[in-house]
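Chapter review: from sequence to fold.
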Amino acid sequence: MTADEKMVRQLQRLLDKQEILEVVTRFARAADRLDRDLFLSTYHPDAEDDHAVFVGGREEFYEWMESTLREQRHSTHHFIGNHSVEIDGAEAHAETYFIASSMTKIGKPFSMVGGRYIDHLVKEDETWTIRRRLVLTDWQLPVSNPPEGAEQQPAPLDHFPARERALAESRELPSRDRLDPSYRRPLTISAQRLARYRSTTADRPVDR
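The token string follows.
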């Protein structure tokens, strides 16, 4: 490989990394502005997203998200933090830290969640999109300290309807070792959780 070829390769890698980061930040903006077109542009048409209390494709995810946020939140603010990405040709795996804050309509007036977006992305027609996304919650406010010697419990989900709370019981949890889902290659979304969510939503109104 010549020096010029190496430079071109490195430049393309940098451009790909920047474009992948922009996909993630567009998602955050789309969620806060409830911008459907911008939201859908971040996902592959065949995307699957496991958001702990939701599992499904991009269109059904947006409909669920907009309904939930309009009903439960006065406003939201998604802040994007540490971002790492591994690129292998036209595929990539990314881990992005986030803090999501909101002014709530139900329960306590303010909530804050810290977690990570674990993404498998693909590049088609020179455009990167999210093919699979798994959301991990690392912490959530408000919290209470567990009794001494007890394990920290998963983030509370009292503000979600019973259907979402039941689904969340089987969600993947973070781990402070290489068992953490961020190390999984390739990233997969549980077919069982996807089928379970869709079976509870088929031919029935949303229970809110």
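Two observations follow directly from the output. The chain has one domain: 3-201. The beta strands are 43-50, 55-56, 73-88, 91-104, 110-124, 127-141.
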